Amino acid sequence: MSGATIRGTIEGLGRRANPAFAAGVVAVSIAALAATTVVSIRQHTYVHVMAGVLWTGTDIFIGAILGPVIGGLEEEQSAAVFERLTPKTAFFLPSMAFLTIASGIALALRLEIFAHSGPWLALFTAANVIPILLLLGWRLNAYGDWRWQVPFAVGTVGSLAWVATTIGAFQMTSPAIVVALALVTVLSVQGFGFLMPGEVRIYKEMVSAAPNTGVISAVGQQNAMLGGVQGLVQLLLIADMVYLRWGGFPGLL
């Protein structure tokens, strides 16, 4: 996928989502994350929890309620729903996911419950960046495009270099933190490596000379199902966070 196509896809999705909505949800997420560096721990926790609620709630709603309803519609009707829904989720869900994950890691560091974080964050970064970029290249048929090759090379070399420079200090951290990192990796790889390329495919089909409603409907329903899986994994993550708060560290907050 060329740089122009990437920009065109983002702009096109933004126009269909409503430019104010698309720009607003991204700007609010970035501003909220920036604010966590200066607000109190209580307010930081609120940002993290509310972003997680919005992310999890949306995925569960799409997977458990909206998906089955759309599955019972005719192909053209199903495609029409996804043509309206996809542009908005393409901005909303990645923004909430990024805000939840980034603010959560920052909060764990701030509360000093993420022991030996350096090597773990290096491993976590490599375990996310490399698979996501590989999946993006595969799903978008971009392995032969230098515009994919350069980010992949930089991301791979950079993340592995971080691992190499920190692995010597590796020590075990809290089991609850390890579980959280593993679950977040599953969510990130599935979200950015499968769901996001699916949304791009829906958009490209929507703007093609002869849109295939069957493809739009099928990919949309697949994304809805994967969204439900995301929701279930997020519930496991919430259970782990409850343990971390009330079980492993009962004196926090």
TrEMBL record:
The chain crosses the membrane at residues 20-41, 47-70, 91-111, 117-138, 150-170, 176-196. Keywords: Membrane, Transmembrane, Transmembrane helix. This is Uncharacterized protein. It comes from Haloarcula limicola.
